[in-house]
Amino acid sequence: QAGGKSIVLDANATSQLRNQGLDSTNDSPKFQHKVHSSVVKAIYTGSEFIATASGDEDFGLVLESTSFYAEQGGQIYDTGSIEGPSGSFTVNNVQVFAGYVLHIGSFLEGPDSKALSVGDEVKCKVDYTRRTLIAPNHTCTHMLNFALREVLGDHVDQKGSIVLPEKLRFDFSHGKPVQPEDLRKIEYIVNQQIKDELEVSAQEIKLADAKRINGLRAVFGEVRPLTQLDIPCSNTLFA
Fold it and tell me: Which residue numbers delimit the Alanyl-transfer RNA synthetases family profile domain (predicted)?
């Protein structure tokens, strides 16, 4: 939802894009913290596709590729701007539908011209200051998952998570209250991992390859791209 208006690419809309021969959005640039160049491939009002967007109404952009992270796997979407030759578009929400990343928002207020058309070359400018607050909270969900299983036992499974700039929430199975002494142990393990300042790098790998990696933790009931987070000294976290 952006500016009070919900914009969703339903099955009919995504089928229309497929029938036009439009490939899924390439979102691999989301791992690169820099301005990304792309091309507008579709503009959606919430009810129809249009060739050119102008004015103050909210709409959604589908790009050829994007550096914006769409909301998924419990992590909140990126915000920022998409700048074209005749207007700057504020990105308030980013969602993915059947492989198409939809950037939802509206034009910046001001006297400048406000227009974006299919085929325009644009610059994706993610708010990386905000992303920098989100990323460590996401990494901490994996450290917390590890610590919970170390202290409470291997029966603990992740049931969900919410990752925001200001906080994270981690849902897990245990079946009984966590005792204060166990909480202290869990906190110590997580804090120790933070103090170790382990380097984190990311790459996408095939699910079949990931299943062969010892220590892989999967969240059952969710469909998400698998990202490997490599930690030196053979310690590996997974998203």
Answer: 1-239
Tokens of 170: 């981690």
Tokens 């790998």, located at residue? 205
CA separation (Å) from 144 to 93, 104, 140, 168, 225?
27, 32, 6, 11, 21
Architecture of domain 131-238: 2-Layer Sandwich (3.30)
Q: CA-to-CA distance for 98 and 181, rounded, in angstroms? A: 45
Could you check whether 11-126 and 131-238 share the same CATH topology?
no
Q: Distance (Å, rounded) from C-alpha 197 to C-alpha 55?
A: 47
Asked if 43 contacts 5 with a C-beta cutoff of 8 angstroms, the reply is no
3-state secondary structure of 57: coil
Number of Cβ within 10 Å of residue 235's Cβ equals: 13
d(CA 16, CA 100): 12
- Can you tell me the distance from the alpha carbon of 18 to that of 114, in angstroms, rounded to the nearest whole number? 28
pLDDT digits (tens, 9 = 90+) for 181-233: 999 999 999 999 999 998 887 777 787 887 777 666 666 555 544 444 444 43
Fold annotation for 11-126: Elongation Factor Tu (Ef-tu); domain 3 (2.40.30)
CA 165 to chain CA centroid, Å, is: 12
Choose among 211, 232, 227: nearest CA to 138.
227
What are the DSSP E strand ranges found in the chain? 36-44, 49-50, 52-54, 59-63, 80-84, 87-97, 100-107, 115-117, 121-126, 158-163, 168-172, 201-204, 227-231, 235-238
